[in-house]
TrEMBL record:
Record-linked InterPro entries: Aldose_1/G6P_1-epimerase, G6P_1-epimerase, Gal_mutarotase_sf_dom, GH-type_carb-bd
Protein name listed in UniProt: glucose-6-phosphate 1-epimerase
Enzyme Commission no: 5.1.3.15
Organism: Corchorus olitorius
Gene3D superfamilies: 2.70.98.10
Molecular functions (GO terms): carbohydrate binding; glucose-6-phosphate 1-epimerase activity
Amino acid sequence: MGHSAAVWDSRAAIEITKDWNGIDKVVLRNPRGASARVSLYGGQVTSWRNEQGEELLFTSSKAIFKPPKAVRGGIPICFPQFGNCGSLEQHGFARNKIWTIDENSPPLSPKDSQGKSFIDLLFKPSEEDLKCWPHSFEFRLRVSLAADGSLTLISRVRNVNGKPFSFSFAYHTYLSVSDISEVRIEGLETLDYLDNLCGKERFTEQGDAITFESEVDRVYLSAPNVVAVLDHERKRTYVIKKEGLPDVVVWNPWEKKSKAMADFGDDEYKQMLCVDGAAIAKPVTLKPGEEWTGRLELSAVPSTFCSENLDLQGRGF
């Protein structure tokens, strides 16, 4: 029958090892055999497996695992800038820095701890970071794996500066799919979106669901807090729940752009889809001492799950 949550020792379910660059990585496990892997390089989730051992996140076979290059896959943290919408490097610098394990993290609610294996990470800007982005902050990230195999990321950014600052943010989530032509997204229909392929021009989504026949690079605005990605071939649905993240990015590079990326296989666009909980269109502004929280929960369920239940599923989140 397996272990009950009552005797499950979440701390014993954490293993810290080093990758081939000598950088610490953390493995979280749950009683049923699901796992997640988090690198201290970028605070990046690099693996999320279900209890059958199936990998649910995509990582390119050509990904470069050598700092200062960002790893192509998993869940990179885009902060304090998403994309090239500011003066910083693409997607900001948090994903290219070494984070630390936070032994004294301020407590979260019991629902974010009980029955879960979790790790708390901390990122503070270096002198070098402050030269290119002169704002002092503390970025705390909790990554947790629940008994049901769901993966939750909770980011908390605190302004420890003497003046306000603004930032954009995304959990740049690379989902593993069977075949992009067999995938659809539900929950974004009728929304306005900014199309990055058309100079960020604003359009309204016309389809009943989003399907894929060519390159897509969009920011959906004021998106609901529950979105579903249905993979027909695998009969699997990814349910994405979010808080504090008003936007949803949808990205697939398709064939031409895939061939232009050195760290991405020519045909790998068929096996991946990025669907990001994000705060982009309206940057987050923090006054001195203020804190922002952005929360993402990912679960993978059989596709017998009915999309009409999405709103019901989301209410208790």
